[in-house]
Write a structure and sequence with these properties.
Shape: globular
Largest sheet: 6 strands, mixed
Helix content: 10-25%
Oligomer: single chain
Radius of gyration: 19 Å
Length: 220
């Protein structure tokens, strides 16, 4: 029973509204780049039902998996999206900030391996796979929107359908080598940053957008 006015709802009842609305599986993605092969872990959450769905790759911040990714996945699953939250650090044996890769670009192969995996998975619309991320993951979300990065890491004509980075350190782009944000793929990029973000001044992301050529600015 789902409960009555005098009896609390049973959380183990399938009709209980608080039950998880998505099936979660843990997957290992084969990633290869520059002659190296590794396996990146991911938590795949698929809303119940037969519909073919859009999907979102979620990339964590420099500290690794935390509540931000879980919160984003739950909200996206509730809205009908499949999510794949990556764990970039497990395959690299990262246990402290000192052990992280030197540059977020080193984790771009993982993001595009996730895109390739979702593209081939049944029940997912291969033309509607987006990417989001926080901090480090926000940078991955930004860089993956450039044509050069897409051409380097994607298979065939694959590309992300949209990019939604959270506080991706906007001061870096087109100022620091390796953070070129130009010649975009044409997918929309939705930059999300707060006034209290200590990585940037309150208007840094706006100034980045304003600095882009009009043709590129139309996508951001």
């Amino acid at each position: 029973m789902s409960g009555t006015a005098n009896q609390p709802a049973d959380p183990y009842d399938r009709a209980f509204p608080g039950r998880l609305s998505a099936k979660t599986s843990f997957v290992a993605l084969e990633v290869s780049h520059d002659g190296r092969v590794w396996h990146t872990a991911g938590a795949l959450a698929e809303p119940h039902g037969p519909a073919t769905r859009a999907a979102v790759v979620i990339v964590h911040g420099s500290g690794g998996i935390d509540s931000r990714g879980e919160c984003a996945a739950r909200a996206l699953n509730a809205a009908g999206f499949v999510t794949l939250e990556l764990d970039l650090w497990a395959a690299r044996g990262v246990h402290s900030p000192q052990e992280r890769p030197k540059h977020p670009a080193e984790t771009l192969p993982d993001a595009f391996a996730a895109l390739a995996y979702l593209t081939q998975r049944r029940g997912i619309d291969s033309a509607r796979i987006a990417i989001t991320g926080f901090s480090w993951g926000g940078i991955v979300s930004m860089l993956s929107a450039t044509q050069h990065v897409r051409d380097t890491f994607a298979k065939g004509a694959q590309k992300f359908a949209a990019h939604a980075p959270f506080y991706p350190a906007c001061w870096l782009y087109n100022c620091v080598p390796g953070f070129e944000f130009q010649a975009l793929t044409g997918a929309p990029v939705f930059i999300q940053a707060g006034a209290d973000d200590l990585y940037d001044d309150p208007d840094t992301c706006e100034r980045l957008v304003e600095s882009l050529p009009a043709a590129e600015r139309a996508f951001v």
